[in-house]
Amino acid sequence: MSEKYSTIHYHNYLELDALLSLQKERSKALGEAAHDETLFIIMHQVCELWFKQILTELDSVILLFREERVREDNMHTVLLRLRRVNSIIDLLIEQVKVMETMTPLDFLDFRDYLFPASGFQSWQFRMIETTLGLREEDRLTYHGKSYKIVFSEEQKARLTDIERGGSLFDLVARWLERTPFLRFRGFDFLSAYKEAVERMIARDQQHIRDSELSPKMKEMRLRVLGDTTTYFRHVLDREEHERMVAAGEARLSYDATIAALLINLYRDQPILNIPFQLLTELMVIDEGLTTWRYRHAQMVMRMIGNKIGTGGSSGHDYLARTAEQHKIFRDLHNISSLLIPRSALPDLPEELARGLGFHFRGDE
Ligand code: HEM
């Protein structure tokens, strides 16, 4: 066998001597050895290894998305890697159970040795959040200070760099804005969609008026429908949308939102199916991380009740609030409120429908 492919033993390939010597229990070194500290260290180390793998996948996806035109064959790779991220997040959620085999009393045997170490200081976790698109202004503040204060200058600089437009959220938003199908030879998707919404609402109003309901019930249902009409008009108006973005109520630009809407409505068209799957995977990542945050918060409640965390936060309360507040792809979830039934969708011109098969070229 050539020098290049010289053999290697399993043990050496995986650097097991180094890896297995990294569990250094402080209770053993500084006082009385606490049995469960090994589990506590291994659980965190395993999480950090998975964080590393998640970052490897996200970084590669970002590289593919940076290209001016995201190539279709790359989209398959992107999907596979995002699915891998989601499988890892599922594992992270599942393994909280293993941590919970430690009882609160056993934790107290060594908790004092940890201060002030905390998951707060997990740079890889912050990199995952930031790479996905969580910005400084979206975060709960840490005693009024930046979450970055616990990191080195180099680590802070990496996080700031991504925050300035290099996140997956930013790249996906730009990709959506470039969607070529919004206008096609006289077919204006948005106008057709707005008309379809108006038609659907007029039909629903007529159903209510023709129904056997009491006048009071009819009035109430018509009022609710009126609110829906206002909602649709509100969201589909460019100026109103821009106002929402400026006020922090929405994050995706108007054009990106409309493109995401089109992809969701016409996802059965072959060319829009992969973009639809991509948007879905991003939402699944958000859901998975939210579930992990809740799961971790629940575990923390069991372990330390209402005590403050070793990192100085309010503990369970802080963690439970991050679950709601630190969502990243909220705008994609909100698209569901704009969906209308397939039966009410405007028909696509035949030429466009044919084009949305596998061979669409925007400049044809
Ligand atoms: C007995 C087990 C655990 C307890 C009691 C615990 C407790 C806490 C607490 C109280 C916080 C809030 C920050 C603070 O004030 O310290 C926190 C944050 C965090 N923990 Fe844990 N944790 C445990 C296990 C784990 C494990 C196994 C991981 C896996 C890496 C982990 C990852 C994190 C991360 C990433 C944060 C930051 C969350 C954020 O700020 O959004 N924790 N933990």
Automatic annotation (TrEMBL):
Q: Where does substrate bind?
A: R111, T310
Q: Which domain of life is it from?
A: Bacteria
Task: Please state the pathway this protein functions in, per its UniProt record.
Answer: Amino-acid degradation; L-tryptophan degradation via kynurenine pathway; L-kynurenine from L-tryptophan: step 1/2
| GO terms assigned for molecular function | heme binding; L-tryptophan 2,3-dioxygenase activity; metal ion binding
Record's keyword terms, sorted: Dioxygenase, Heme, Iron, Metal-binding, Oxidoreductase, Tryptophan catabolism
The record's Pfam families line, in alphabetical order, gives: Trp_dioxygenase
Binding of heme, residues: H296
Enzyme Commission (EC) number = 1.13.11.11
UniProt cofactor(s): heme
Q: Which PANTHER family match?
A: TRYPTOPHAN 2,3-DIOXYGENASE (PTHR10138)
What is the documented function of this protein?
Heme-dependent dioxygenase that catalyzes the oxidative cleavage of the L-tryptophan (L-Trp) pyrrole ring and converts L-tryptophan to N-formyl-L-kynurenine. Catalyzes the oxidative cleavage of the indole moiety.
Q: What is the name attached to this protein's record? A: Tryptophan 2,3-dioxygenase
Q: Give me the gene this protein comes from.
A: kynA
